[in-house]
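Researcher: Here's my situation. A collaborator sent me these components and asked whether they could plausibly form a single complex. I don't have experimental data yet, so a predicted model of the whole assembly would be a useful starting point for our discussion.
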Amino acid sequence: MHLDDLAEQAATIRARDAETEHEIRVCMAASCQSSGSGQVLDALRAGVEPQTQSCRVKGVGCMGLCSAGPLVAVAAPGDTLNASRLYRDVAPTDAPAILDNLGNPEPIERLHCPTDQPFFTAQHRIVLEHSGRIDPDSLDDAIAVGGYSALVRALTELTPAEVLREVTSSGLRGRGGGGYPTGLKWSTVAKMPGGQKYVVCNADEGDPGAFMDRAVLESDPHRVIEGMAIAGYAVGASKGYVYVRAEYPLAVERLTNAIRKAKRAGFLGSQIADTQFGFEIELRLGAGAFVCGEETALMASIQGLRGQPRPRPPYPAEAGLWGCPTLINNVETFANIAPIVREGGDWFAALGTEGSKGTKVFALAGTIVNTGLIEVPMGTRLAHIIEVIGGGIPGGGRVKAVQTGGPSGGCIPRAHLDTPVDYDSLKGLGTIMGSGGMIVMDERSSMVDVARYFMEFCMTESCGKCVPCRTGTQQMHALLERIAAAEAGRAELALLEELCEVVQATSLCGLGQTAPNPVLSTLRYFRDEYESRLVD
Amino acid sequence: MSLHRPKPPLPSDDTRWKLVNATMRRNGYADHALIETLHSVQDAFGFLDETALRFVAASLDVPLSKVFGVATFYHLFRLKPKGRHTCVVCTGTACYIKGAGVLVDALRAHHQVEPGETTADGALSVLTARCVGACGLAPAAVVDGEVVGKLAPEALLERLDQLEHAKTAPAPPPRARAPA
Amino acid sequence: MPGPASQPKVRVVTFRVDDQDLSAREDETLIEVCREHRIPIPSLCYLEGLSAWGGCRLCMVEIVGQPRLAAACSTRVVEGMEVHTDTERLRRYRRTLVELLFAERAHVCSVCVSNGHCELQTLAQRCGVDHMRMPRRAVSYPVDSSHEMFRVDHDRCILCTRCVRVCDEIEGAHTWDVMGRGSDCRVITDMAQPWAESETCTSCGKCVQVCPTGALVKQGTSVGEMVKDQHFLPILARRRHPR
């Protein structure tokens, strides 16, 4: 297949879709599904049965504003989310009204959710560009919006070295937490001597309060497959694994379906786009172990072992799965690849800040008006995200702190909300970008309690291999319990701080090394909350 | 030198073993298929009993202690049968901040059951999960596979009571064989 | 039979450990080289002849120019590297780690058959652990005395996995493994059943000899009588895996 054939195919699909006057898109991502969007979809489908030329009802992926679900968008085929008419908190009983109102220039007032509000207009969607527009189970929908054109272009018009150059010049950094330069990682694997190599997609999104990767997999799975295949071409790998949490059944289902369809259409398998390049993807399910997000533990798990990390080096790029060179990136990183190949590395590098390029998807949650999924350019100020896009605290309360980076991150106090969100600024504040969870807390939240919560998390998720993480997290948790209950004194606070230092410095893997971060960051900004509870 | 290793016979004529065997065959009986195979046992039987673990160990030629080590490392694998209904309370950060602890306390008080346990009458298993990804609906729980969100403790208890009274959910399939 | 011809090309590198100039093959780890030159590096999981595990973190050393500490058992020597093995900071960390181990389970030296011959006890003395700043974890574990020759007391186990590795790598039985996760980890024989019922154990006793504490001991020993003998390990390892 050539690029022209694919473009023609896309044009044909778009032309066919354009014959329909109205497209009714019902969010079928996990959050809206759990508030009943399935029944809404059924009711709408029943209302336009048989599907006429004038109206098509389809299930789509995440539209972002999860707290207002079920969300239904009425649009013309090809319209973006912001150009559509959005309805919120839709019940199945609202279906007739929505269908009756189709031709009306005025929306239904009681359900209307304006898309000209900052939550929608202040975002910049690259990873989520097609999320909420296309049916994730339809390969045609993906192709219509340009799916797989970057892969076919890379295979037919670019050499692996040229792909590497685009990815390197884009300045993309790993979206899983560490922020390692993606181009450098790819080049390292590419430079390893030939033979078997692997590409692994880390979809073991485990940070509590984070659901970016789930949304991408549920909304636009083909984009991840395409990114992985391009990576395989660039580094010389013929086999890929997606390691996905078993707790995400919907994502697993859609990904399985997408892999099958991509294979049938020739975007996976041997001789893709009539070239010598072949690439297969297999799914591996996690089984409830947070530590498997750590790359060496993840590889152990793919190999059927206990998910325990091993010392690095050797890094996976050198000796990964079964000792072979292995490229591991997370879902969002792979989801950025197709646009980078399509638009060029320089285009991507023009977005964001000096050290952090492109956009970042965040899961906004906690005490905030608009909870859901957003994508903003790197460098957007925290205050802008929380007050403008997130709509601030319900009832007009004050933000006390924002937690980023999950159990490996820290709390940013109100005084620092002016900080631009990028890898380096957040690090300077004692937290990390992490995978993108952003939990907003108001004045009622106790910071000691937040630290205790995350320490409990790390304690129960510790794999048990190394002493500082296994026993240190447990002692720190016990100390935090005692401080929270106002039973501890200065000596215990001092011991807590020392344990933080030891566990951070001596733990084997990232889980242990970063486990003290929530304590250290709350001690840094909210020390008085600890001290006010001491008994001596 | 190669020692011939015969595949063990299926533990019983329960057809679900064929599903398990199919997973192993698809992976060429390679030892790295262990977790995939345990998933397929749990999908078929609801939990992993000793018979199943021994069968998988023998089929994949993985040491028994290794199989047991893997089965107990991952929290999703259950070594005991589930209750007739399950309620998974999400304890992710967003749910925690919005009161997941209250839900757990309510279940504890009303059903005398700790997270990870099943009530004495086998009616209800209570579990906790690290974020079910429904942060927009916090606090959330998964009741018999269905996510329910924005829950007050009373609403959750009422919903669970309805389940038990409605008896609509089918009982779990009978176990293949008692553990050896 | 391996031919004599092909010598793998391994370079020899020179580096400094605690102001002492040393040389070693580049495929050697820091701990191997230090032990060879009698530079003491504490460790409870590392044992010559077994694969490196990297769990006890007591062998952490400082490498000049590297922000993070490195575990000597899993760090290869590099040309020109400068290593410090015994700084004040490292001594403090080691003391805390040993203390954490003591607090994790009910280690009571005065009633232990390994008293006086225990690697954990010796290390505690060397690190200067003379009191405990943290409470003991109040969980008690069973003793399995079912085996006719050996006994396992989980209260004295530090989860170093030497028994697991020697059983798998040297004996080839893989009777031992670890179950559970985090602090709930426990070493098990077969399906966590009594040792005597194990179908795979050959009763060779290697696990007992490599155990650094009184967790795995011979039956019939009383307080202070259990002395371990590990001299067999490097010999067996060499014969099984000729370099």
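Model: Some features of this prediction you could bring to your collaborator: Chain B touches chain A through 39 residues (CB under 8 Å). Chain B has two domains: 16-73, 85-166.
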